[in-house]
């Protein structure tokens, strides 16, 4: 019988007491606390064009929270809750998810690989996978901010073409703009530590 892997909803403020936290939950604070810390570090307001092409009046700058060691450590601990058996390897797509994959690897002791953008693989070794990946390995794919899910699905496609089994895709933040539906439609379970609504709620809400 395998151990229970807690969902982000279980690792929230209701379980802030270390004694009552589910196994593998981060204990440095609840979900609301993490949302506030990411908002403080990385929530920008203005006029932005998202990777999907959609316009938005807010932007969550992944590099701002991923380069904060305190936030990155907490994020990695929470992502690691999804890396129990049968996961054998962590994967992250360049460039934004590389820091996440490395941090989760350090937290769990599992090796990781970097999935390169196919448009940039025409120089050097030309490899789309950096690091060692063996056919049949079960992989947890981590993502920073999921909007449409396109980048995560492209990375999953590359991993599958190299023989990996993508067990799950877990994003730090789900912008709730189609990523979950797109990923699950591709037959891959999807989870997120936080939603954009939770991030925005720390500022009293903000326009989309």
Keywords:
disordered N terminus, 208 residues, two-stranded antiparallel sheet, 6-stranded mixed beta sheet, single chain, Rossmann fold, 7 helices, alpha/beta, 8 strands
How would you briefly describe this protein structure?
This protein is 31% helix and 24% strand. By secondary structure, it is an alpha/beta fold.
Domains (count): 1
Are there runs of 5+ residues with pLDDT below 50, and where?
A: 1-28
State the CATH topology: Rossmann fold
Silhouette: globular
Broad CATH class = Alpha Beta
Task: Based on the coordinates given, report the CATH architecture.
Answer: 3-Layer(aba) Sandwich
Q: Could you give the count of β-strands?
A: 8
The CA-CA distance between the termini, in Å, is: 44 Å
Question: Over all CA atoms, what is the radius of gyration?
Answer: 17 Å
Topology pattern, helix = H, strand = E:
HEEHHEHEEEHEHEH
Count of alpha/pi helices = 7
Describe the overall structure:
This protein has 208 residues and is α/β, with parallel strands linked by helices. It has one domain (13-201): Rossmann fold (3-Layer(aba) Sandwich), CATH 3.40.50. It is 31% helix and 24% strand. The protein contains seven helices and eight strands, in the order H-E-E-H-H-E-H-E-E-E-H-E-H-E-H. The chain has helices at residues 31-42, 62-66, 69-79, 98-108, 150-161, 179-185, 196-201, and strands spanning 43-49, 55-60, 89-93, 112-115, 129-130, 138-146, 165-174, 190-195. It starts with 30 loop residues before the first helix and ends in a 7-residue tail after the last helix.
């Amino acid at each position: 019988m395998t151990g229970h892997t807690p969902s982000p909803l279980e690792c929230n403020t209701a379980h802030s007491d270390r004694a009552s936290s589910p196994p593998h939950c981060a204990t440095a604070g609840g979900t609301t606390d993490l949302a506030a810390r990411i908002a403080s570090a990385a929530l920008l307001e203005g006029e932005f064009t998202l990777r999907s092409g959609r316009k938005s009046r807010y932007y969550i700058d992944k590099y701002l929270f991923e380069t904060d060691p305190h936030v990155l450590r907490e994020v990695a601990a929470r992502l690691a809750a999804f890396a129990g058996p049968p996961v054998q390897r962590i994967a992250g797509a360049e460039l934004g998810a590389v820091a996440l994959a490395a941090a989760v690897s350090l937290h769990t002791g599992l090796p990781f690989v970097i999935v390169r953008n196919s448009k940039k693989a025409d120089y050097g070794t030309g490899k789309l996978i950096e690091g060692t990946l063996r056919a049949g390995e079960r992989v947890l794919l981590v993502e920073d901010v999921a909007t449409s899910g396109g980048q995560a699905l492209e990375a999953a496609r590359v991993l599958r073409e190299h023989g990996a089994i993508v067990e799950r895709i877990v994003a730090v933040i789900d912008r709730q703009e189609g990523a979950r539906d797109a990923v699950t439609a591709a037959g891959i379970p999807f989870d997120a530590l936080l939603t954009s609504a939770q991030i925005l709620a720390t500022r009293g809400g903000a326009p989309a």
